[in-house]
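step 3/5: co-fold with guanosine-5'-diphosphate
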Amino acid sequence: MSFRREKYIPFGGPDGGHGGHGGDVCLRVNSQLNTLVAFSRRRHFIAENGVHGGGSRRHGASAPALFIDVPAGTLVRERATGLVLGDLTSDGQTLVVARGGRGGRGNEAFKSSTRQTPRFAEKGAPGEERDIELELKLIADVGLLGKPNAGKSTLLASVSAARPKIADYPFTTLEPNLGVVWIENRDFVMADIPGLIEGAADGVGLGIQFLRHVERTRLLVHLLDGSSPDPVADYNAINIELARYSERLAAKPQVVVVNKIDLPEARARVDEIRAALGLEEVHAISGATQENITPLMWAIVHRLDELPRSEEPLEMPVLHPLELREDTSYHVEKLEEGIYRLTGQEIERLAAMTDWFSDESIERLWRIMVARGIATYMANAGVSLGDTVFVGDHELEWQ
Ligand code: GDP
Ligand code: MG
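step 4/5: write tokens
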């Protein structure tokens, strides 16, 4: 609220500008992300407030939208209702999940022929607050391959930032062990492929569904037990089995890793194994002591960056996002004799925007209630003059 105050202009008119709008909270697809693991650290997001309006009709600036990055394939639901708000699939796609409040209007806006000097301004509308659930169709980016006892489970457990909750997994007999790896601002999903080899190529053990899932990984990490009698023979045997099992899998690029170098006999053989494999890059790690784990994880991230995305599209259901609109319905509840509570999204917002220290502002709220039919509705519900009515955080005497 502001009035013009200038020399030689004794009765300046109202000149309070509007407040800026609050920022929206939006989700945005970032194709660099593969998981929702970042949300294990942070779950509350608040956009900024708009800037207050000022005198001389200065309007406050609106706050920028707050963008929260999510991976492609994220399904967004409102927690309370389970309604789907959006299905985010393509890079850069955005979805507003909570709108910022509208800025309040300055007192200049309330000037009329009968009210030359409005001594109130509107408060800013409260921003929307919403509890949402994010769900992601996980595709493992990396498959862990190796003989039984190579140390696959140990490695996966030691690098996993999260064990995703797996819903409706299409294969139940042999659940793949999925882990989310999180390294600085990068992430990927790694699947332990247990028992791939034992009888798998003959159709025993793993279901065809599981094969399909594993076939969508982009990179295989081939783990060798450095303490095994002949790690190179293990490597060759696994690759032969793999080719029998699935040509597509056998064609995937592999990162080869000698594990268990905490054991002296394993460490002593690393160079020999490297030479025998004749590969450019062979990592040497210990899943047990974590030695060289971070460089290995970065090597995986860099390899993934070079590889194309899964060629098959994500099998996401086609959904029609619900449009979020303000609910203009209202409802009155009798708490006790002479005391009522009026509820409704719109009316509660209007009450929050009212300046309760200004009779004019309160009067304006009454006029809106009359215009909306709320006054009649309240009278029909038995609310009479002098009764107490709660609206949001406010209490008013019915007039
Ligand atoms: P998987 O069959 O490939 O899943 O192998 P596991 O992770 O179950 O490990 C098999 C055995 O090797 C277990 O006894 C582990 O404790 C052991 N192991 C796994 N990683 C290491 C390692 O880095 N160093 C040593 N010394 N032992 C390991
Ligand atoms: Mg295992």
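step 5/5: annotate
Confidence is low (pLDDT under 50) at residues 168-173, 316-322.
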